[in-house]
Design a protein that fits this description.
The complex is a heterodimer of chains A (273) and B (176). In chain A, 88% of the residues lie in helices and 0% in strands. Chain A contains 10 helices and no strands. The radius of gyration of chain A is 23 Å and the shape is globular. Chain A starts with a helix and ends with a helix. In chain B, helix 2 runs antiparallel to helix 4. The chains are: A mainly alpha (273), B alpha/beta (176). Chains A and B meet through helix 3, helix 7, helix 8 and helix 9 of A and helix 1 of B.
Chain lengths: 273, 176
C-alpha cells in the first residue's frame, strides 16, 4: 500500500522529463524526415519544369494572390518608418537622411523578413491546408495508384512557385515601402526631394544591400515552402491533424525566417568588413 | 500555344517583381550612378585614416569622383595603404594631394582630392604622394590643453591665452 504514493510521486517527476525527451526526439526525427522530403522534392522537380504550367498556376495562387497584402503592408510600413524616422531625425536636424533610413531598413531587413512572414501566413498556410486536405481525402494515394507521383505533380510545383514568388514579393514590398516613405517625407513633411533620393543612392549599395536582400528572400522562400509542403504532406489525415499542421507551418516558418535572418545578416555584415 | 488567364497573371506578376527590383537597383541603389568597369585605381598612404571605410566616397571640390576600393595596413611603414577607384571621366594632375576629411561634425569620413599644377596626369597604379591624415579629435584636444597649460604661467592675461590655443590647434589641422 505504501508503494503507490511513491510511484505516483515518481511519475510526477518523470512525466514532464519524458515529455520533454519525446518532444526533442520527435524534433530531431522531423529534421531527418524533412531533409529526406527536401531531397525527394528536388529529385522530382524535373517534371515541374518540363510542365511549367503547373508551377505558373501555383505562382498565381501563392504569389499573385498575395500581392494585395504585400503591397498594402509595404506601403504602410514605409509610411510608419517615414513618420517615426522624421520625428527622431528632426531632433538632430538631419531630416534629409530619412531616405537612407527608410531604404536601408527596407532593403536589408524589413523587405525580406516581413514579406517572408506575410508569405508564410498568407501562402504557406494555404499550401499546407491544401496538401493536407488532399491527403485526408486520399487524393495523394489515388495519384500514387495511377502511377502519378504526387511529389512531382503536387508538391514540387508548389515548392518552386514559392521559391520564385518570394524574391519578387520581397522586392515589391521594399519598393512600395520606399514609395510610402517618400510620400510621408517629401510630399507631406516637405523634405527636399533631391536630397531624399541622392542621399539614399549614396548610402544604398547595389551589391551589398539590394542583392543581399534578394539572397535573403530566396533563402526564406526555400525555407517557408519546404516547411509548408512538408507539414501538409506529413499531416495526420484527420481534420484536427490538418488544422494543427497549418498552425505549425505558420509558427515554425515564422521562427525559421527570423532565425535564418539573424544568421544571414551576421554573415553578410562580416563579409562587408 | 493557347493562352490562359494564368499566363497573363504570371506575366504581370513577374514583370511587376522585376520592375520593383529594377527600381531598387537604379532609383534606390547606386547601380545607375556608377559602373565598376569605368574606374582606374590609384594608391595613397596615410598615417591615420580615422573612420574611413571601404566604399567610402572620394570627393574633389565636393563632387563625388570615386570610391575607396581597398584599405590595407602596410606592416613595413606602419601606415594605411588606401586604394582609390576614381572615375575614368576625371583625370587629376600627378601632384594632387589627398586628405581624409569628415562631412560635417558627425558625418561620414571621405577622401578629399585637391588638384595640383602638374601637367602629367595620374594614371592607373600611381601613388598619390602628398597625403594628409585624419584629424583625431582626442589628439587635437590634448594638443589644445597641453599648449594652454604651457602658456598659463607666462601669460596671465585672458586675451593672450585664448589667441595662441586655436592657432596651435589649427597648426595640427593645416599641416599641408
Amino acid at each position: 500500500m505504501s508503494a503507490r504514493p511513491r510511484v505516483e510521486r515518481r511519475n510526477r517527476i518523470r512525466r514532464p522529463i519524458a515529455t520533454l525527451g519525446r518532444r526533442m526526439i520527435d524534433g530531431i526525427w522531423r529534421v531527418g524526415t524533412m531533409t529526406r522530403f527536401f531531397t525527394l522534392v528536388l529529385a522530382s522537380s524535373g517534371t515541374s519544369f518540363a510542365r511549367f504550367r503547373l508551377v505558373m498556376r501555383e505562382v498565381y495562387f501563392s504569389g499573385v494572390l498575395s500581392l494585395v497584402i504585400i503591397v498594402v503592408s509595404g506601403l504602410f510600413i514605409g509610411m510608419v518608418l517615414g513618420l517615426q524616422g522624421f520625428e527622431t531625425l528632426q531632433k538632430y536636424g538631419a531630416t534629409e537622411s530619412i531616405g537612407v533610413l527608410v531604404a536601408l531598413s527596407l532593403v536589408r531587413e524589413l523587405g525580406p523578413v516581413v514579406a517572408g512572414l506575410l508569405f508564410a501566413a498568407r501562402a504557406g498556410s494555404a499550401i499546407t491546408a491544401e496538401i493536407g486536405l488532399m491527403k485526408v481525402t486520399e487524393q495523394l494515394s489515388a495519384m500514387d495508384m495511377m502511377a502519378v507521383s504526387p511529389m512531382a505533380r503536387v508538391i514540387a510545383p508548389r515548392f518552386w512557385a514559392g521559391v520564385i514568388s518570394m524574391p519578387l514579393l520581397s522586392a515589391l514590398f521594399a519598393a512600395m515601402g520606399v514609395f510610402g516613405g517618400y510620400v510621408i517625407a517629401v510630399v507631406i513633411f516637405g523634405v527636399d526631394n533631391g536630397a531624399f533620393w541622392s542621399q539614399m543612392q549614396a548610402a544604398v549599395d547595389f551589391r551589398y544591400d539590394v542583392l543581399n536582400g534578394v539572397v535573403k528572400s530566396v533563402v526564406f522562400g526555400f525555407a517557408i515552402t519546404v516547411i509548408a509542403t512538408f507539414e501538409g504532406y506529413d499531416a495526420p489525415p484527420t481534420a484536427e491533424g490538418v488544422s494543427r499542421a497549418t498552425t505549425r507551418t505558420v509558427v515554425s516558418s515564422a521562427l525559421t525566417v527570423l532565425a535564418l535572418d539573424l544568421v544571414l545578416t551576421a554573415f553578410m555584415l562580416r563579409n562587408q568588413g | 500555344m493557347e493562352r490562359t488567364t494564368i499566363d497573363l497573371w504570371f506575366g504581370a506578376f513577374v514583370t511587376a517583381g522585376f520592375v520593383a527590383l529594377l527600381v531598387l537597383a537604379l532609383k534606390v541603389g547606386n547601380l545607375g550612378a556608377e559602373r565598376a568597369a569605368d574606374t582606374y585605381r590609384v594608391e595613397a598612404r596615410f598615417d591615420n585614416i580615422g573612420g574611413l571605410k571601404i566604399r567610402g566616397p572620394v570627393r574633389s571640390a565636393g563632387v563625388l569622383v570615386g570610391r575607396v576600393a581597398d584599405i590595407r595596413f602596410d606592416n613595413e611603414r606602419f601606415q594605411a595603404n588606401v586604394t582609390l577607384a576614381l572615375d575614368k571621366r576625371y583625370a587629376f594632375p600627378k601632384d594632387t594631394s589627398a586628405s581624409i576629411l569628415t562631412s560635417g561634425l558627425l558625418g561620414e569620413t571621405y577622401i578629399g582630392l585637391d588638384a595640383g599644377g602638374d601637367d602629367k596626369k595620374l594614371a592607373a597604379g600611381d601613388r598619390i604622394q602628398i597625403t594628409q591624415s585624419a584629424v583625431v579629435l582626442e589628439r587635437l584636444i590634448n594638443q589644445f590643453l597641453f599648449s594652454k597649460a604651457q602658456e598659463e604661467p607666462a601669460a596671465p592675461a585672458k586675451g593672450a591665452t585664448a589667441a595662441p590655443a586655436p592657432a596651435a590647434a589649427a597648426a595640427g589641422v593645416a599641416k599641408r
